Every structure is written in structure tokens, then in C-alpha cells.
């Protein structure tokens, strides 16, 4: 599956407007631990490796280019541990994926607790994430089966955003905001790589 998403920093008025008539599907609080190498091999390529409650997920960008700010990024998502090992070229050396990642230089760099509310409105899904470092983000997303569905998904997302008056689009997500606030060296590496302006 391919996730097509666009992020916004919503005002309280925009949140009130978008949730009117939407169905709240779920609300949960989770803690994500994000991994990278010492020289930021993953995050400088907008590749996100996280452990959520003992389950690893890897999000790989399909269309990202440095300094291409404002584009809607699509990600392939890997959740199978063997597929994640294969992506990194890791042979299982430990009993756990975490052990294999650590042995190959992938270490935790951030832990973020988020309260997430997931909604459906029409055929679109959106989530409102409120983090433990006082940052709220809204993501409008659609999952498509293949790359042929990406353009139509992008059009639907942009029409939904326009219809609901979202004005402050965000090229990056909560992890980059955490890095900006907490780790200046990492943030400068993202700037040099063209991940952020």
C-alpha cells in the first residue's frame, strides 16, 4: 500500500470546522521511538524508522527530492520485520529486529508520545496528532493500491484542504519539529540535505 498525505498546522478554528460532520474512528495515545544512524542516513532522506509499542515500521519516500518543498510526499510502508531487514541489507544476527538494527548502527534518537484522533469525512481520512512537546499537526491521507492512484489521491487531498480552509501547510512532520526544538546538529543536517528550508 502507498500512503499519500499532506500535513497542516491547524488553528483551533480549523480543527472545529473540519471535525464537524466527521466520524471519529479512534483515539489512542502511543509512544514512538525513532531510529537513525550517527550521521543521519535515514532522516536526511526523509526515511522514517520507528518502533511503536514493540512493532517496527519503516516509511520510505517514493517521490521525495531535496528542496522540493510543498510537494505531497508518498510513502511505501514496511511493517514486516523481514522486509525491513531486507531493505537495510541486514542478516538476522540477534533474536530481535531491534537488536539487529542496533548492531548495524541504527540507534534511537527521539521518543515522542502522541495522542491521535483519527477521523473519516467522505472518503478521506484525517488525523489530529497532539504531542507531548506541545505541537499539534493535522494530516489528510489516503491509501492507494498502486502508483497509478497517486495523482487522483493528491487531487482529492488538496480539494479537501481547500474546502476546509487549511492555510498553513507543513512540508515535514512532528519528528522534524521535535528535531528542530531538541537537536540543533541534527536539524542542520536536515537543512543541508534539503529536507527543511
| CATH C-level label | Mainly Beta
Mean pLDDT: 93
Number of strands: 9
Order of helices and strands: EHEEEEHHEEEHEHH
Strands in their spatial order, largest beta sheet = 1-5-4-3-2-6-7-8
In percent, how much strand structure appears in the residues? 35-45%
Radius of gyration: 17 Å
* Low-confidence residue ranges: none
**Rough shape?**
globular
CATH architecture group name: Beta Barrel
CATH superfamily: Hypothetical Protein Pfu-838710-001
Oligomer: single chain
Helix content estimate: 25-40%
Helical/strand content category? alpha+beta
Q: Kindly give the count of domains.
A: 1
What does this structure look like?
It is a single chain. The protein is of the alpha+beta class. It has one domain: Hypothetical Protein Pfu-838710-001. The protein is 28% helix and 37% strand. It contains 6 helices and 9 strands; from the N terminus they run βαββββααβββαβαα. The chain has helices spanning 12-19, 81-88, 97-103, 150-163, 174-182, 184-192, and strands spanning 2-8, 23-36, 48-52, 55-61, 73-78, 107-121, 124-131, 136-144, 169-170. It has an 8-stranded antiparallel β-barrel, surrounded by 4 helices. The protein is globular, with a radius of gyration of 17 Å. The model has no long low-confidence stretch (mean pLDDT 93).
